[in-house]
Amino acid sequence: MVKKHSELFLIPLLAGLVFFDQLTKFIARDYMVNSIPVIKNFLHLTFVMNSGVAFGFLQGTNDIFVWLYIVVLGLIVFFYDKFPKDRFCRVMLFFIIAGVAGNFIDRIVFGYVVDFIDLRIWPVFNVADIYLVVGIVGIIGRELFKKKK
Question: How many CB atoms lie within 10 A of CB 145?
Fold first, then answer.
């Protein structure tokens, strides 16, 4: 069980995660002109303006996803006390919040999400997307592991 006051460390964690996401997107947006190979044919940095969702689907639907992010963040706040209370799950939940917040900021400020991590075998994504995947997989994995015990 995690006490409320012991969760205060999550606020700077959230701020740091969102800051790092926005910093990487700033660099991608302002300094990337061409695709930059980091590991040839495996990892490139490729600037993409994504006004849709994952994998570039539903391009031009930015407004819908602004409202969806508001609903998701509202649901997380509303159901916060219902999420598992152990420290690991709370950290994973804040990774999810950071991912939603990072992409939400892009949609509000620019009208699109900045994507730039290009694995060549997967659609281009960003740091906030990594946060979302880590958080969701972390919570699901933790709950599945607990069920097995």
Answer: 9
Q: What's the whole-number average pLDDT of the chain?
A: 87
Residue 102: pLDDT band with limits 50, 70, 90: very high
> Does residue 89 belong to any structural domain of this protein?
yes
Instruction: Say how far residue 6 (Cα) sits from the centre of its chain.
Output: 24
Q: What is the pTM of this model?
A: 0.86
Inside any domain, residue 3: no
Report the catalytic residues. Answer: 115, 129
Q: Tell me the residue length of the chain.
A: 149
- Residue 69, pLDDT score: 84
Exposed (0-12), middle (13-18) or buried (19+): which is 21, by Cβ within 10 Å?
Answer: buried
Q: Tell me the β-bridge partners of 111.
A: none
